[in-house]
Design goal:
Blueprint lengths: L1 E2 L2 E2 L2 H19 L4 H17 L3 H13 L4 H17 L12 H5 L25 H11 L3 E5 L5 E6 H11 L24 H10 L4 E6 L2 E7 H16 L1
Length: 239
């Protein structure tokens, strides 16, 4: 970064140029000396330690994702931030999340909303089926919810159905999602009991269960989510 013809890092710019300018300006405006020292001191210490809230969040989220799902990591990170703030101190004084801290976090798996996948990819009824299959292969998923332009759930397309249909139609088919999607769907709400959701999947022999709230798709529960949940519940019983 170039500042007034001089090449310097953002860290040095803050410490050597911007903070002294801010200090002079605040004093010139008659701001209390104690407030000036406290507020600018926090900024200075963050710059010296190269530590910000954003850096702490990203670093610890990536660490949590090594062992936990996306949603679990987000919940754990939020709980950790809450505990750190309750403990006092500034973010540049926070260390990395420890394994003992994470182990003491209790995530409830009693309702669908705490287990479902929310990182959703959806398609429209008029999307080409061949493209949809490519998306499934790329994302390594076997089900894609179908939404309209208002976000209402219209159906579900599965890899097996789509692949079989395209094979029957032959190469160069212009088939679209509407030609093969399932519209007679079994759905569940985010506040429903997770055991009930799993029983639905077993009883109806389905491998995915769209989670809907007020007609809008908010998540999906799949066999992978069920297996992940089972391993978590099994682990908690052995502790």
């Amino acid at each position: 970064m170039v500042w007034e013809g001089e090449l310097m890092s953002a860290r040095r710019l803050i410490l050597d140029r911007l903070l002294p300018m801010a200090e002079d300006g605040l004093r010139g405006m008659g701001v209390d000396e104690g407030d000036v020292a406290r507020l600018l001191g926090v900024i200075g210490k963050r710059a010296e330690a190269n530590a910000t809230g954003a850096r702490w969040t990203v670093t610890n989220y990536r660490s949590l994702r090594k062992k936990h799902s996306r949603d679990e990591a987000a919940v754990m990170l939020t709980a950790l931030m809450h505990e750190r703030r309750r403990g006092g101190g500034y973010v540049h004084e926070w260390g990395a999340a420890t394994s003992s801290e994470v182990e003491h976090l209790q995530i409830q798996y009693d309702v669908v909303g705490n287990v479902m996948s929310t990182d959703l990819v959806t398609v429209r009824e008029d999307d080409l089926l061949d493209l949809v299959l490519k998306i499934m292969e790329w994302r390594r998923i076997h089900h894609l919810p179908v939404e309209d332009e208002l976000g209402n759930l219209k159906g579900l397309v599965t890899m097996n159905h789509a692949d079989r249909y395209l094979q029957e139609m032959g190469e160069g088919s212009l088939a679209v999602v509407k030609d093969v999607m399932v519209t007679d769907l079994i759905t569940i709400g985010p506040g429903d009991d997770i055991k009930y959701a799993l029983l639905l999947m077993v009883d109806h022999k389905i491998s995915s269960l769209p989670v809907v709230e007020r007609g809008k798709l908010v998540g999906i529960l799949t066999n992978n989510d069920a297996r992940h949940l089972w391993s978590k519940m099994k682990g908690s019983r052995t502790e």
